[in-house]
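Minutes, project check-in

Agenda point 3 was the complex the collaborators sent over. CS summarized: two entities, 971 residues total, and the question is how they sit relative to each other. Sequences were read into the notes so everyone works from the same version.
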Amino acid sequence: MTGIAHAPPRVGVEVAPEGAPAGASGLSPEEYAAVGAALRRAPNTVELRCFAVMWSEHCAYKHSREVLRRLPTRGAGVLQGPGENAGVVEIGGGWALVWKMESHNHPSAVDPYNGAATGVGGIIRDVLAMGARPIALLDSLRCGPLDDARSRRLLAGIVGGIAGYGNSIGVPTVGGELAVDPGYRDNPLVNVACLGLVRTDRVVRGRADPPGAVLLYAGARTGRDGIGGAAFASAVLDERAEYEDRAAVQIGDPFAGKCLIEATLQALETGRVRGVQDMGAGGLACAAAEMAARADTGVVLDLYRVPLRERDMAPHEVLLSESQERMLLVTSPEDVEILAAVYRRWGLEAEVVGRVTDDGRFRAQFDDALVVDLPADLLTHAPARHVDPVPVPDPAPLAARGIAAEHALLRLLATAELAGKAPIYEQYDHMVQVRTVVRPGRDAAVLRLPEVAPAGLALTVDGNGRWCAVDPYGGALATVLEAAANLACAGAVPLAVTDCLNFASPEDPQVFWTFARAVEGIADACRALGVPVVGGNVSFYNEGPAGPILPTPVVAMVGLVPDVTTAPTVPQDDNLLVLLGAADSGLGGSLYAREFCSSLAPGFHRPNLHTAGRTLSCVREAVQRRAVALAHDVSDGGLAAALVECCLILDRGASVTLPGPVDTAALFGEEGTRVVCVVSPDDLTELQSLAATHDVPLSVLGHLEGDRFRIAGPDERVAVDLSLGRLRRAWMSLGCEAG
Amino acid sequence: MIWGVVTFPGSNCDRDCVHVLRHVLAQDVREVWHEERSLSGLDAVVLPGGFSYGDYLRAGAIAATAPVMDAVRTAAGRGVPVLGICNGFQILTEAGLLPGTLLRNRHLRFICRDVSVRVESARTPFTQRLDNGAVLRMPIAHAEGRYTASPDVLRLLESKRQVVFRYCDPDGQVLPAANPNGAARAIAGVCNRAGNVVGLMPHPERSAEGPLGSTDGRQIFESVLLAIAGVR
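CS then shared the predicted structure for the full assembly.
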C-alpha cells in the first residue's frame, strides 16, 4: 500500500497539463501551485476536479475561516460545536437538540422548486447524521419585490419546493420569514434550519474510525445531478445561469428521503454504526475525505461498487455527484449485513464502497486503477485567502418625506415583510409529529417535547439586510437581539444559534469588511446573551447581473421553554397594551425608510446590549409567570406595526396614547429592543414590579377596545384611526400567487 | 383491545397515531409493516396519513396494491373497524374499500389548517360516541383531498347515510367558504355500506391533546372503544 502512496496515479486518467486547468477548475494559479508543491507532482484530472470542489469557497471557507473564529462556540451543554454536520446541545433528561441552518441560494435561483426542495433534504440529512430525528424546519426566504411577475414565480417555486419535500418526509415547517429587495431579484436567498432530537448517548459523528472499518454507502443511487454544485455555489451567477447551470442543481426525491430517515434511525438503533455523514456538497469525495481528516485516518474508495443510476459514469462524476438521499456509514466488516438489511427493507441501496486505512491518504480506485491518491487533510484544508478589508463609508443622512401616518401604516402592513404569511405557511405541514404548540405566524414557534415534559423548545429565524446595509455591525447585533426577543416573547431561554451569512463576493474589499463587521456584531451579541453559535454556513458570491445583495446575516435561535403544558392567559377586552424597553427613535434601515425615503439612511442607532438583555429577561419572566396574555417584539414597521399585529392576532381594536410626540420615527422606527405586552389590569402590578426589578422602562400605552385601532399623542391629536377590518385587508395582501 | 397501525414506506403520521393510541388512550398497539399478510387478532386498524410510496403515480394508488391490503380487505369483511386518515382515506378509495376518489384541491395547493366538520352519521364505530350534527375542530394537511364521485354514487351515499363528516363553519353551517378543498357536497369523510370502514381527510390524531389546540379528534378513537365494548 505505502509503495504507491507518492507515485502519480496512472491508468486511464490524464495528467492535467501544467498550469492550464487553473481557470477551468476554479482554483487560482496560487492554489494550483500549492497543490503541485504539496503533491510534488501535477494532479491528474480527477484529482484536480476534487480540489476544485473541496477547495471551493462553499466547502473550504477560504475567505471566512479566520473571521468565523471570532464567534463564541462554547457554552454549558454544548456537546458539539461547529466543524461537524450539525451542532448538538444538551437539554436535560438525557436528551439533546441538534441545530443547523444552511443556504441553498444559487440552486434556488436556477431551479426554484428543486433548489429549495434539496435545500430541505440537505439540512435534514445533516441533522440525521448526528443521530437525531429531525423534528422541525424553519425557512428564511428573500426574493425580488413581488410586484414583479418573475419574483412571484420564483417565490412560488421556492415555497412549492419546501412544501413538496418537507411535507412528504413528515417534518413540520413551523416558522420562517420573508423579505424582499431588488438585490435579491436574480439571487434569491433560501436559508433552511432544521431542529433534531437525539439521546445524548446516541450522538454519532462524521468520523472514519478505526482503520479496518468499512465505508457503507446507503440510500439512493448516484446519478449525474449536482456535479460541481459546490463550485457552482462559489461563483457569481450570470444571465445565462437559469439555462446553463441546471445540471449543477440536484433533484430531490422526498420519498427516498423519508425512507432514508427511518432506515438510518433504525440502523443507528442497532448500535453498530461508528460514524455517519451525509453525501451533500462535494458528494462521496467530500464525505469520505472529511470523515478521514476528522479521525486522522485514511480511506480507499472502490468507485465501481457505488450504486449508479446511469451507466458509464466517469470516476470524477461518481466521486463528486451531489445526488440526494445518500449517507456514508462507517461500520465494522462483520456488522455490514445487519445494517445493509435495514436499508434494503426500506427499498434503499446499501453497498460497501471502501475501507478505512491508517495512512492519512484519500484514495479512489476505479476498475482496479488508482485514480485518486492524495493526502486527506490536503483536500480538506484549502489555503486561506486573505483580503484587506476596506470600510464602507456611512451613508449620508436623508430627511424623511412627510407621509400621512395612516397611509404609511396601511402600506407597510402590505409589504412582504409584514403581511400575514398564512398563504405561505398553510402550504407547509406545520403540525405533523404532534409537537406544535405555537404554530407559525407568531414571534416564535413552540414545540412540546414529551421526552422532557413539561418543557418545550421555541425557535425563530431572523435576518435584516436593511439594517446591515446601513450598519453591518449594529445590524447584525440587532438581528441576534431580534431573535432573542422572539424567543423571550415565547418565554424561552436561548440555548443555541446557527447562522447563514449571505454576502456578495468576498474578493471585494468592501464586501469583505461588511462581512467581518457583521460577524463581529453576531459574536458580541451572542457573547452578551451567553448563547453559543453551534454551526451554520457562509454563502458568498450572492450577486446578480444587477449587482450585489444586501449584506444578509440570518440567525436561527432555539431556546428552552420550561413549561408548555399550562394554557396561556386568555386576553380580555379591558386588557392593557404595555411597552417594555425604550429606544433612541430613528428611522435608519427601517421598512419605512425603504418605502418612503430615497435610501435606507439616515443612520442606525446601535442597540445597547445591556439594556436589551435586561428587557429580554423581564419579558421572559413575565411570559413564564403568565403575567402577560401576549408579548410581541417591535421590529419591521416599528411600534405602530407591532401594536396592529397584536390587535390582528387577538382580533380586537385598541386605543393607544403615545407618551411623546407622534412623529414618523416614534411610529415606524425599528430601533432598540422593545416588546409590546397585552396585560390584564390585575396583572399590571406584577409586571411593574418585574420591570422595576430588571430596571426596564415600562409605559402603559392604552388598552384593547372595540374594532377600531387608534393612536393619539399626549396632546390628544389623533394620528391613526382605522378600522380593524381595513388593517386586516391590507395585512392580508400576500396573494396565493406569492406562494 | 388491540389496535393495528399500518406503516407503508412514506407514511408519516403512523408514529403520531401510535402515540395517541398508546399514550393518550392507553391502548395496546401493534405496528404493522406493509408487507404483512395477516391482521388476525386486531380489534381495529388504522391506515395513517403521509405519502405512501411517495404518492408517486397517484395518492394512495401504489399502497392500495401492497400485501397488507389483502389482509385489510379480509378484516373489513369480517366487520373489524378500519379507519383511513388522509393518505389512509386515499388508499381505501384506491383499494375500492370506500366509494369515490380524492382529487387535487380546488386551488391545486397543499393546505394545512384547522377546519370544522359536522358529524353526519353517528352509526359508524368511529362516530358512535358522537351525535349527528356535532361539530369537531380538527386540522387538515393535504394536497389531494377534494372528494369526488359520480352523481349516482353521491346520491347513494346520501341515501344510505354513508357521508360521515362534512366541512362546515364553527357553528355547523355547511357553507362554500367553509369547504377548504372544493369537495363534492363538502364531504370530509365517508364510510362503506356496512359502516365499519371509515375514511376522512382531517387528522383526529393531531387534535387529541389539549396543548395542541383541540381534543375533538380523541372522540373518534374513543367511539371505537365504546363500539367494541358493545359488541362484547
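Noted in discussion: The longest strand of chain A covers residues 133-143.
Follow-up: revisit at the next meeting once the mutant set is ready.
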